[in-house]
Each structure stands twice: as structure tokens, then as C-alpha cells.
Amino acid sequence: MAVTKIEGGVNSAAGFKTCGLRAGIKAGKENKDMAMILSDVPASAAGTFTRNLVKAAPVKWDSMIIENKKTVRAVVVNTGFANASTGAKGYENSKRTAEKAAEVLGVETEEVLVASTGVIGVQLPMDTIFEGIEKLSNALSYEKTAGDDAAEAIMTTDTHSKQAAVSFTAGKEKCIMGGMCKGSGMIHPNMGTMLCFITTDCSIDRDLMQDILRKVVNDTFNMVSVDGDTSTNDTVILLSNGMAGNKAITESSDEVEKAEFEEALRAVCQSLAIEIARDGEGATRLFTAEVKGASDEETARILAKSIITSNLTKAAIFGKDANWGRIMCAMGYSGASFDPDKTDIFISSKNGELKLVENGVTTGFSEEKALEILGADEITAKCDVKDGDKAAVAWGCDLTYEYVKINGDYRS
């Protein structure tokens, strides 16, 4: 049985309850602002976190838990305030959040992970957080609608919730993996205001799961950029509770089993990563960069990500301008080694494909055809540097007037 996309999200796997609701963290709002995930049994936990030196308190708490404890039971998430740059009190509030959740759920404090997103530098309103935890514990459900509520409750400037789920096999057992994420602005993950939570009922060795997660995150979330800003709170959590009943996948397991688990995780993460890029703040187009013919994978990755990160290129995509010089320029300052005089550049969309550059110079392409291609809502730049057989893909979006408007008054 191959990996198959299914309808669902973070509570699709057996033994995971979720919920999301409004606790009232920010006065005058109406959005859902807290979510909870609970595993019926202890779940192995893996995670990747921001490499920003300014790390939010929840990142510090979760890093400590995942490094020192093999299993967890619950995750509590709040929006509104990021609990970043909040000092010792902020860390204590993350711990108090875990303590309160442990109390109402009947688990250990060190079995609770926490996550926050929102405005930096503001202490959490702990009375509201505690009340929210009480409400969440009473609303937990296996129903799909509860997963939908949780995905909605972790949104900030997102225009829609983001979920994905797949089925796959481990041995003879059918397994499910599902996830939810939030992210629209301050997106340039480097682990890894991106949060992602993935659950599976597949049983797998925790250290192997951590290794696979790092690899997949590097190829998916770390290949996304909306605005070049790496958040203080970037977090990807993967929980495995083993309730599918399969024999645990270990380093010595059949390579096919390990590969299928990785494929399942890659399918979930890539789907969510693309949705983040598509939903970039103010974006009107998903912008993908595909680089092939590179001498090594790292070169391909650096070139692809430099293209989708370039503000000038992003602005050109917004303006439907086939300004290939901006793509070539972004590749040139990326730090990766390639020969511009051997490079070909294409643009493509559902409206067709057009070669703009051959061996480093313009093809004298039709501006009318370029405008037609760039008029679609999903645009791809394809670059062949003709120096090897390695390739990479990165995902971003256009840069619009609306992005500035959103971030001009984000705090207030």
C-alpha cells in the first residue's frame, strides 16, 4: 500500500483527541485562540526548532522536554502573544501552562508541550490561559470538527487553516499520519511565526523518528520563505503513539518500511509547507523555484531558496513582469557556485511554459506570452545550471502592497 492522501488533519490518527476554542487572550477579538492535542497513551516525541538566537520560552521548554524525555501526552497552543523576549517570567509561564494542563488532564508536567504565537515581548495573561486550559480539557474530541477547530485556533494572520493527512502501511498494519500548521508572515524557517504539529499512530523508534523529521523538515519547511524573517517561535512537533499496532520501526527494520514512513511524513510536511507559501501575507500567487543540473544538493537548495527569497523577484511576480535578470541576480549573490553562462531559465504555469534565458542570455521571448503565463495564481521558475544531476525545490509567494499594510500595524 502506497502513501495515500486522505481527508483529515491532526486528530486523524488513532488515539489523538483535539479541540480549539476562544479563551479571550486578546480583548476585543472573536477568533479561536487556544488549541489542545491529547494522546490516549504516552507518545514518542520528536521536534525541530528555530535557530534564531532569540528563542521564545515555549521553544526552550519543548526543547528541554524532547531532549530529556522519551514520551509526552499533550500539547497546548495559544495565539495572540508569542511569549518571546519575556525573560525568566516568560519561561515560568510556559512551565505553569504545562503544570495546569497536567493537572486537569491527569498527566505529568513533563508530558506536556506548549507553543505560543503572536506579538513578541508581552507576558501571557495566565488567568485567561488557565481558564482556556479548563475549557479545552472538557472539549477534547476525536471528531474531525475538533481537528478543524484546533487548526483554526492556531491561526494568526493566516487567511485559512492548514491541515493534511495520509494513510500508509508499516508491516501489515495500516497507519495514519496527520498534521496542522500555522504560518503566513515572519516565515523563513531555519530549524527548524511557523508552528506545526503532526501525529501518527505508527510505532517507530524515537531516535529514528527524530532523524527522519530533521531530514524531511530540511527539504520542506526549510525550503519555504514568505519574507525572509526567521521567527523566534518556529516549531515542528511529531508525536507517535503506536496505536496502529505495528511492530515498531527501528534502524534495523526493512528499508521499505523506513522509506514509507519518511514518504508519509514528507507528504504531510510538503503539503503544509506549500500551503504556508500560498497563504503568505498579502500574497496573490504561489511562487515555486525549481533548480536542476546542480553539482550537489546543497548548491541546488541554496540557489532555489535565494530565488524565492529575493524581494525584487517576488515583486516582479506580483507585477507579472518576466524580469529574469532578477532571478539570475538572486542566484548570483546566493553564495552557491554555478556558471551563469551555462544557465537556462524558464517560467511556467497552467497557461504554458516559456524559455526566457538560454546559456545566460535572453531568448528574445514573447512578452505577451510571458504576461499570459504570469497571470496564473501558481508560477514556477525553472533553472537549469547544467553542472550535474542534483535538484531542489523551494516555495514562496509574491510581494504585494498588502504585505506592508498587514505588518505596518501588526502589534497594534
Your description of this structure?
The protein has 412 residues and is α+β, with helices and mostly antiparallel strands. The chain has helices at 57-68, 87-105, 126-139, 144-153, 206-219, 255-278, 297-309, 311-318, 324-332, 367-374, 401-408; strands at residues 4-6, 16-21, 34-49, 71-78, 112-116, 162-170, 173-182, 195-200, 235-240, 286-294, 344-349, 352-358, 361-362, 378-384, 390-397. A hairpin with a 2-residue loop joins strand 6 (162-170) and strand 7 (173-182). The longest helix is centred in the middle third of the chain and has 24 residues, at 255-278. The termini are far apart. The model has no long low-confidence stretch (mean pLDDT 94).
Please give a handful of descriptors for the protein shown.
single chain, 412 residues, alpha+beta, 9-stranded mixed beta sheet, 6-stranded mixed beta sheet, globular
Describe the structure concisely for a colleague.
By secondary structure, the chain is an alpha+beta fold. Helices cover 34% and strands 26% of the residues.
